[in-house]
Sequence to fold (1676 residues):
Amino acid sequence: MMNKQLAFVKSGLGLALCFLLVGAGNTPPLYAANTEVSVNQQARTVTGTVKDAKGETLLGVNVVVKGTTNGTITDLDGKYSLEVPSNAILEFSYIGYVTQAVPVTGRVMDIVMKEDARNLDEVVVVGYGTQAKKDITGSVAVVDTKDLLASSGSSATQQLQGKAAGVYIGQNGSPGASTMVRIRGINTVNDNGPLYVIDGVSTRNQNLSSLNPNDIESMQVLKDASAAAIYGAQAANGVILITTKKGTQSGQPKLTYDGYFGIQKTGKKYDVLNSTDRLNLEWEAKANNYAINGVNKLPSHVQFGTGAKPVIPNYLTQAGAGGSQNIDPNTYSYPGNTMVPFSNTDWWDEVDRVAPMQNHQVGLSGGTDKGQYNLSANYFDQRGTVIESYYTRYQVRANSSFNVRPWLRFGENLTYAWTKDQGLTSSGAEDNPYSWTYRASPYVPVYDIKGNFAGSKIAGTGNFQNVVAQQKRNADNYYTNSRIFGNLWGEIDFMKGLTFRTNFGMDYTSAYQYRMSKKNLEFSETRGTNDLFEQSTFNFRWVWTNTLAFDTKFGEDHSLKVLLGTEAIRDGLGRGLSGQRYGYLYENNTDTWVLSMGVNDLTRVNNSWYNGEFALFGMFGRADYAYQDKYLATVIVRRDGVSRFSKSNRYGTFPSVSLGWRISEEDFMENTQDWLDDLKLRVGYGQTGNAEVPRATNFAYEFSTDPRTTGYDLGGTNGTTYTGYKLNRFGNEDTKWESTDMFNVGLDATFLNGKFTAGVEWYTKKTSDMLVQASYSALAGEAAKPYINFGDMKNKGVDVTFNYRDNAGDWSWDLGLNLSHYKNEVVRLAEADDASFWGAGARISGNITRTTKGHPISEFYGYKVVGFYESEADLAASPIPLGVADRASIKPNAWIGKFKFADVNNDGKVTTADRTFIGSPHPDLIAGLNATVTYKNFDFTMFWYSTIGNDLFNNNKYFTDFWLFEGNRSSTMRDKSWKAGADNSNAVLPVLDYGDSYSGTNSNSYYVENASFLRLKNVVLGYTFPKAMLQKATISNLRVYLQAENILTITGYSGLDPEYTNASLNADSGNDLRRGIDMGGWPSTMRFLFGVNFAF
Amino acid sequence: MKHNLIAIFGFATLLTFGSCGEDFLYKAPQGSIDQNALQNATGVELVVANAYANLTENGWGATPFNWTFGGMYGGDANKGSDPGDQSVLNEMEMYNTASTNGYLNEKWVWTYKGSKRVSIAMQIIAATTDMDAALKEVRMGELYFLRAMFYFESVKIFGPFIPYIDETFTENDPKVHNDKDIYPNILADVDAAIAKLPATQPEVGRANVWAAKALKAKILMQKGDMTAAKPILKDVIENGKTSNGLKYGLEDNLNNNWSALTENGKESIFAVQFSNDAQNNGNSGMSLCYPHNSGPGGCCGFYQPSYELANSFKVDANGLPLLDNSYRNGTSVSYVNPSSAKDAPISLNSNDPVDPRLDFAIGRYGIPYKDWGLPKNDWVRNPVNGGIFLPKKHVYSVAEKEAGQTAIHDGWAPGSTMNLQYLSLRDCILMYAECLANDGDLKGAMDLVNQIRTRAALPANIIKNAAGQPAANYKISTYPQNHAAFTDKATCIKAVRMERKLELAMEGQRWFDLQRWGGSVMATELKAYVDFEKQYIPKFAAASYLQAARTMFPVPDGQIQTMGNDESGKPYLVQPEPWK
Fold:
């Protein structure tokens, strides 16, 4: 085997060769010589001002002598000055405006630019280049950056929600929350996160919070294979292209400030009881339990005595007060004998708060035709609605580009971001701060009678953590991330239409954290000790892309663009290191928080690990051909090799073809021209690949050691173990690319000079040779199963967009509606037809979701509740209840009033075979409506978002609606439980029975709820100060606005937030196998903001 | 222009050949090594240690100390804790187990995990050439021993019709039907272990030949083959010694078997060596089984001894067990305190005479709990659900805690370095007594029982209160020669079985004993248990009676699905008849 370093050098050299060969072939000023401007005998200077229809001056308008490169741009006051030959024609162009060609008639030429509502010539970034919108044949969603920025949020992916058809975003309200992005359904059981390409540098890091949304110039989503195939290997889940703001040729620097400040608050709380109702409920359930079981006993509780009614003692104690009124508070001692008064604690209110949020961004941009720059700095601070939680980001960016010669350009984009929080627990889980609010006993106050934290050490109150104590103790914990992301590029024009570009990008991330888990002596299951954990990790990725672009026309009718390129990627260059020690004597003194201050005994732990190196090399080509601007064709081929697979399976080739027909350009459409601006039919087919398995070397069998699982104390010392090695991972040499075939048909139309635009797209895609973790049986042992190619998955869907904009008088409006629908189906998963992937919830026995053939990924699976066993007669007439061996063994009292599960297979008894599909987390429709209305200087924006037809599995109800642990209970349990002899037509829960471990234990349809919702996500009211007023101070723009978010939600879902999608929003492999299990978490927050946009 | 063409050509060449290639795209696995690197003397030690590590790498369902399947299911204890906590255990303790129960799957998975570790180690030994041949044999013997034990654990739970995989299977995902009785395979393994293992080992944690013989006897007993087990047990009891060379004998002080400070003594035939060097090596399988709140361990309050077990320790006026089951009549040895006033203990104790081992096996209010003083009310998590008794044997003492012999499981639950004896001399003695009783050697059997009782009566084993007096009305004596057990075979068998229940209480053995004594014995005993228990813990009123045919648990549902069907469409795994 070749020395690794040498191999690296060699491969590096190979790559360098790609660049050098091209560079060496170039002798400088060929192109420039061809187009040298001859000095005209009758040259003269033309000056003028360019304004828009409203009379406001336009900055940066291109002014060029037609047919030459002689040109300039307008300055801050819209003025230009250009030396022109006689008989010249001046071309004025500006993005978003109709290009005008005006013959030179005098020395002063003032121009009024007309807005181009059709936007057909708008240039859109596509893979490794740009394309005019009208020429696009694939499926590309162009996101309006203004719409995007209208919402607040720490990352652009949060703001993307509802802004593009076919893109499904999941998020929550925790500070700096991560986001789940799914493009057109779900492709695989593995990683479904899209590829992000930022300024030409690809990254799979799904955490975009280190990218400041205000830096984004444009955002495009490549949805179908014919658009995305150029990113071949990594494009199966779609591609999101982000271009950051570049400098301008304004000459004079432009200083901008954008900022907002506001507050966030939660809406709905968990529906739980006050102390008295909670206590009475328990008494009733305990009494019923005795009655049901035929025991002649009275309910009892260590604090409230034994009797027909509970007796509230003067203090609740650690040992149990037994209803005593004579507890002597002087016997208090901490931590051994604490006491609290019987309280009515609303734990939600104790831990929830109104939290401020602010964002400040300063930008400086400018430049000349020789060089441009854009600098920005950002401070974002979001306090969480849970006390002591926060997320803060500091970020700077420097983008610049230089035209060294007209044929030679260089540039760079670079951003550095540093974020900090105190260790947020944003995932949906039973130990999320908000989950503790229902798991805690309302009897116990936050503080005991001496001001120490109180908790479940008070006997009979279960095993809850005092969440206020937890948050306060964690306040000084330190979690940071830093990220450097950027690229350096060079471009050279060999001749007209032939451009070579090289682009080297890097993505360096590092994370550093330490946290003290302080003693929690008020907790009934306290460890009684503390520990400090410290961890540092880093990762480096680089991407080197080289492309050659050729653009030409043959005659009048044929235009051809060809792009050839190579790309090399290295990733996973990084390691991690962690250490942990226990027994800190001064846990509250943060100055003692270093590992060496902990006890040096056998409990100390240290670890280090590799991230797992990854390499990719790709070659690609793309050809865009147009005939008469009417018939369009794009062909793409990409061939990629990745290091994850064995040598023989390393490469995959991904082709695509797409065709476009601009029907409106046909002669027979001439009659429609007065109302139809553009009509285009697009058809595309392509293949993309996926190699994203969470293993760097899937082909190899790997042995490793881990003291927790492989060490054994053969020597009998009690304090050491002999080291063991185990087969940790199976390998598979045969594993190859997962590929997705996608067919897309789209129809785009623009009417009435751009007033209406509409698009409909229909797609079907099939993922085959899906990379699934082999489902070996237990007989294979413990080693992690290799990823193999098995299984197919299908997605079908429709994306619809509709836009209407117009103006009348001082009014103008812009309405955008986007609708998406997808249908996901697993076609094949393994040899065995009913082989499945399963997903578990919190505390519920067995699994909740099932992914199997013929169903979408992650459907809810369990018993179907069909009512209650109403009476002994009903019981006798019903199938034998779950788990009971035969009819003779049924004890009627134990079953009357309990859930009756459906006997799906009609064999006369309810068994595990009667579990069935009870709901689906996938919406039938995802809709976003963006509306902007402006009147004079006022602007008003509204954004509605809705999903329809999706269910959630409300796992929290296991804690609040059944007798799991001793936490709080819901009003549903109080008001809607089945009662013997009562009218039970409204009952949804079984008879109150303290010993009932049947009803909630297994996954059943009681937990499944329709989670369709319509939410007013955003309302903004803005006022822009009149230009005239500002001009004296040479301020070019000043706008202030008020904003409110998430202020109205219409839903039938009983949980906190119907917007819930995945418990963990990260793109980790396998998260989609547990879609829609609501295990608690951080709800979307209402926000009220005041903001300013300022440009100087 | 010419230069440009060269450039384009050069670029195109690069594209075509992709020379930026092979080395760039090969990445060796990081942070691991491959099997070849382990095929040497050092590697063998590493993979053998790993096979042993399966003994400590297990969860609540997989632990070979079987507090769930052996203890709870056999009526020694109930689940404890809150009703909903680990609610899947409720269906087991109510005898309504579903094949989806995760505890079943855990045990199944553990067995095959261990089996695979053994297979890999055997394959590596076979490929190793630089190792001392004799040592190779010893290591092979240890591996055979471990494999026999891993499979035996599943056979006790699922019955002998389960797949058997050994080192000759080289495919990643073996497919085998569960249509063969694997007792012969396990016995062949244990015979191979006996043939290869030495009498002593340099490390006390390794199995020796005597451990293998004891295991063989235990397997044969479970299989119901007392004839074959009997001579082996005799041999073990008379001639056996520990891996570190101690001749087998009963400890005088019972506590010596249940303390990290005195472990690996003469009574321990094969113990699982727990350690606190890493978070999960301190008996994580029993991390839930500690008293709650301010109690030792301060965790989860599971595995609370049953009323039925506690009352079994009642004795007659002569200090002998009540073999007529009359212990189920009258006042319970402990009962809920009618006063729930402040400072009133949860329960009170009757003054009826009891076997002193009651308070050794079971924590009771008013009786010193090891060296922790009297139990506090909050040690029981939820008396309504779990009753009034506390687990005790495996819970560490203050002395052990102060000596640093505690551990942490997964950063939250308690653990201990206290070894637990998978095979012990007391167990072998009582099994041998069964064999003798079965063959009609009633005196021989009762002499062994009396040996056990004599030890239990030693002063060291009488728990004293703060005043230095016996903490309860303890009474224990040996069976006199004129007792019916010396003359009547049925009584003798009863006495031996009762002794086993008392001596091995809370050691995770009970259900396996009931099971091997036969379906009808099991069904009768467990019916009596449920009927007795429901007088005190109402939830048992809803319990089913376990059917006599269900002497095994169902095969885990998920495994049946994952294995699928063979080419002829026949499922690889089939539920045993009583569970169909």
In short: Chain A touches chain B through 160 residues (CB under 8 Å). Chain A is about 10% helix and 40% strand. Residues 1-41 of chain A have pLDDT under 50 and may be disordered. Residues 4-24 of chain A form the longest helix (21 residues).
